[in-house]
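From the pipeline queue, job 12 of 40. The input is one protein chain; the requested action is below.

Action: predict structure.
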Amino acid sequence: MELKLIRHWPKATYTIGRLYIDGKYFCDTLEDRVVDVNRNGTFDGAEKKVYAESAIPYGLYRIEYTHSPRFGRKLPRLINVPSFTGILIHPGNTAKDSAGCILVGKNTKVSKLTQSANTSRNLNKLIDAAIKNGETVTIEIV
């Protein structure tokens, strides 16, 4: 299964994008602000990570579906994200609900997501089924 997150609207404190599964639109996303402005997958030069305020670097990441101690349930976890640990795809409504993680839902209000919990549950089911089916799950952030 191939997920692709296209960051469409980077703002000063948050970033809105769209998530596609195997080429088909699935939902909207909300992340912290983009720091990897040259889009090379690392923080270099003047690009500096700020905890709970910076989106992860652009790139391709493998996803595991594992237990999150913080949320008390299984969630999609991005593996080997440079300068970050514990990056999840989970529900949330504003960038304050993310510490570098990718929030999923519907962007029906400026700087916010709605229908996030339901969207996250639906995504989790798809990812869990793909992994149980022996598929490798990846996400490319562009």
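Job complete. Residues 56 and 100 are 6 Å apart (CA to CA).
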